[in-house]
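User: Um, any thoughts?
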Amino acid sequence: MLFKDIIGQEEVKERLINSTKKGIVPHAQLFCGPEGVGKLPLAIAYAQYLNCENPSDTDSCGKCPSCVKYNHLAHPDLHFVFPIVKKTAKKKEICDDYITEWRERIKQNSYFSLTQWLDFIGAENSQGLIYAKESEEIIRKLSLRIYEAKYKIMIIWLPEKMHESCANKLLKIIEEPTDNTIFLLVSDTPDNIITTIQSRCQRINIHGVSEKDITEALESIYNITPTDAASVAHLSKGSYLKALETISLNEEHKFFFNLFVQMMRASYARNIKEIKAIGNEIAGVGRENQKSFLIYSQRMIREYFVSNLNQAEMIYLAQDESSFGTRFAPFINERNIVGFMDELALAERHIEQNVNAKMVFFDLCLKITMLIKQ
């Protein structure tokens, strides 16, 4: 993967290239920022640049033997760790068991979320984790001599999903790695990584992609009109992944929006039968989708509260969301906004802790019936 293939982020690219030229390559780096801004492709492009045999001032050559292998994500000195689900019957218990699917997903589009990845591997109702057993694989791989590259590179996607015992076992090797070993950790929520690992990494903050860069990418890659591209770029709030989801009108967005509308209407009407039906429906879509729905609901509540301020440039709503907000937004005000956000965040934590989903959403809707009347 080349730097030129990544949307925007010119400042970060320049920083990574300049540090490489100066020979400043920290052995443990933490790429952190919002979802969908290009952290994973940046880490892969950086790894390729570090091992490129003929790098230019702006990018890898893309043609040397090392780059050819990186283009297929199959370099012997490049290793990946990422959340998985155990499938004992199919003997899939470590990341290498999913490496074919991982390469295929990145080649399709390197901008994807945890939910999309888990859907791709058929996780169903399971939550993605980096299991304790993975630490043994990481230590084994990094104990081997470098095969042919200058650096041996371990990219860990979403280290916040590491099992605690796995994270603790990696502390020593992250602090004192073997020669020419580089750890690149890619995180959406770095504060959820254990502090002892955070302290051993150099943090690289990656911010949202500019609206200009997203607009230009959508126009050139997807042949979208300038007006539509600019509108989508604004709604994306710096996430190229969000922009792609918006133009694809994906089923997940429709499902989340329709479910949000049903939940709010049933709660407002205090329709217990409908509330139970909603709980039953979302209980069957898997834990990661349930968490994604609650995160989506938090965003919607926040946007509807802001929309009451009548500042159009501060509102990030799609057309269907905006239409519903015309009637619903007045019910979100300074008296209940904190309560709404607290209850949605609490429900998200309960889902994370594997509390019964039907109970969680039934209880949430009952609390919303109280809040929505304030």
